[in-house]
Design goal:
alpha/beta, 5 strands
């Protein structure tokens, strides 16, 4: 059924995807696994978009499917008792990229794990990151992206943070489909997170929050 969900979402079969996700969740499947399958499907959609096989309407439909499935899955994720906020994380999808699926999962999990999260949204210009760092004073900055055009946007954003004299005040992590350790090095970030929990673990490590 996992493969079927990815295929349905990537194939723009909205009702089929929603029905499959509901069936999986009602059957006791781990909601985080369901959300991860959605992320996998959206990576396929993003790749088809870059290849010119899909266009903006398909990207938007994929995002809408993910939103509806997220609304089903999130209430089922076990949350621990409320804890004091253990650190601040600023996060956003970099300029030129409108993908928010992976970012939204990271934001949700960071919140559940006791972080104060400031979400800048998508297509975030580098100056907006700089201004927000000055205002929020986070310990951690997360940059998300799916398309290859995000590589330069991440590099430019890190450079802007450095030029503003703020680089030594924050730890920067990147993530998203198509991101890698090589992209991290190119962009000048501190770490690459392969999935949402990696972002949580990095944030805990950098802020000294208990595991």
């Amino acid at each position: 059924m996992s493969h079927e969900l990815v295929e349905a979402m990537a194939g723009m079969k909205e009702q089929e995807a929603l029905d499959l996700a509901k069936k999986m969740l009602d059957g006791g499947e781990d909601p985080l696994k369901v959300l991860d399958l959605c992320r996998e499907a959206v990576e396929v959609v993003g790749k088809r978009f870059e290849e010119g096989k899909y266009f903006l309407p398909e990207l938007m439909m994929a995002g809408e499917m993910l939103k509806q499935i997220s609304d089903m899955a999130k209430p089922l994720i076990q949350t621990e008792q409320k804890v004091e906020r253990s650190g601040k994380v600023l996060i956003g999808t970099v300029e030129g990229d409108i993908h928010d699926i992976g970012k939204d999962i990271v934001v949700f999990l960071l919140d559940v794990n006791g972080f104060e999260v400031h979400d800048l949204g998508v297509d975030v210009p580098r100056q907006k990151f700089v201004d927000a760092i000055k205002e929020v004073q986070p310990q951690v900055v997360g940059m998300s992206g799916l398309l290859t055009l995000a590589y330069d946007a991440m590099k430019n954003t890190v450079e802007a943070i450095e030029e503003s004299g703020l680089r030594d005040k924050v730890k920067i992590m990147i993530g998203g489909g198509g991101m890698s350790e090589e992209v991290r090095a190119y962009a000048g970030a501190d770490a690459y997170g392969g999935d949402a929990m990696a972002a949580v673990n990095l944030s805990k490590e950098w802020t000294g929050a208990s595991s």
